Amino acid sequence: MHVALNGWFWDQPHTGSGQYVRHLLAALTTLAPELRLSLIVPEQMHQLDHLPPKVDVLPMRVPIGGQIGKVWFEQRSFPRAVARLQADLAHVPYWGPPLRISTPLVATVLDVIPLAVPEYRQGLKNRLYTSLVRAAARGATHILTISEDARQGIQRLIDVPGERISVTPLAAEARFQPEGTPAEDNAVRARYDLPDDFVLYLGSYAVHKNIRLLAAAYTYVAPAVGADVPLVLAGNTPAAWGTPRFPDIPAYLRELGLTADQVHWIGPVAEADKPALYRLAKVFAFPSRYEGFGLGPLEAMASGTPVVACAVSSVPEVTGDAAYLVDPNDSKAFGGAILALLLDDTLADQMRQRGLVRARAFSWQQTAQSTLDVYRYAASYA
Question: Which of 57, 225, 288, 322: disulfide with 229, CB 3.0–4.6 Å?
Fold first, then answer.
């Protein structure tokens, strides 16, 4: 079977879509070496790092840049490439399928944030694009998603029958381990100027990530721990704060009276440094209101770090009983959970051990096998 995949996000490993296509393709080549895989990319993508062996690459011309160029690639370039290759099946590993294509189509909808979160529906261009991909997803032969919560959201908000949706959970990579080399961990500590003890947030600052809750929660933590255990905020910051999608977190921290000694910004983190960063943290805080899956908590648990998160969306599916879950609107409870893990070594160790066990229940091999089963099923519709 020859499968052609949309590789638009291949050079964006910091995004969920980029991570998904990279891990899935690597796992598929190991699981099913007889499978022929072609990655279709825009011709301006000159860097194709970590490409698995025996994966063909077909660059396609995109005559215009920006969001319009992305739509052109999805609706024109990718379908033409699939037809040129005479592939048996097309897979778009993010929510951007074409309306028309010559082969059976599998589309992955990682989440329905543009429909579920009001701030993402603002602006005519956003609404037009969402309407386009919503209609295109309905026409897919089969849809993959990454949690039961996301599957229910797709049924409700895109109006796709449940029998046409399969759940293929994600997994933490094998490099996320509780034990690392002292040299590696010390190098990461020095690179980001990390204190001996800290609470970590790693992710984006989009509105659904609920960072205001974490900031408010730390007003309960900081008086107890002072500057000895600061909150470390890691991840790419937006080009502009104070928009509907990106609330002004720095201004909110100032409003709350939290100082630079209590909250440290360290900015983007290299992928190679993430395992050590998780390991070095005393607690991983994940206040998100909505996740298609929630890979961050799973990576933290695999690294042996206790997790505080919100009991909402797909997060309980991922963490099970291995994380301290609280209400997404209760900053006092979130702060209390962080303090409990910082002050109670027995509780922290219990959650650490539960997390390690929980993380081992997920694997990219399982994800690839479930995806391959869907490939075979969808290809039969040719």
Answer: 225
Domain-embedded: residue 176: no
Domain count, the chain: 2
Considering Cα of 204, then 145, then 322, then 301, what sign does the dihedral take? negative
Note whether 78 and 261 are within 8 A (CB). no
Residue keyed to tokens 């034990």: 179
Q: What angle do CA 142, 90, 28 make, to 5 degrees?
A: 90
Per the CB < 8 A criterion, the answer to whether 203 and 284 are in contact is: no
Rg (C-alpha) for the chain, rounded Å, is 21
Burial of 83 (0-12, 13-18, 19+ CB in 10 A): middle
Burial of 369 (0-12, 13-18, 19+ CB in 10 A): middle
Q: Is 268 found in the same domain as 193?
A: yes
Instruction: Give the predicted TM-score (pTM) of the model.
Output: 0.93
H helix runs in the chain, sequence order: 16-31, 66-72, 78-85, 113-116, 124-138, 148-157, 182-191, 211-225, 249-256, 274-280, 295-302, 315-319, 331-343, 345-359, 364-379
Residues 6, 153 within the same domain: yes
pLDDT in tens, 85-95: 999 999 999 99
Q: Within 10 Å of residue 208's Cβ, how many Cβ atoms?
A: 18
According to DSSP, the β-strands at 165-167 and 142-145 are parallel
Q: Sort residue 3 into left (φ over 0), alpha (ψ -120 to 50) or beta.
A: beta
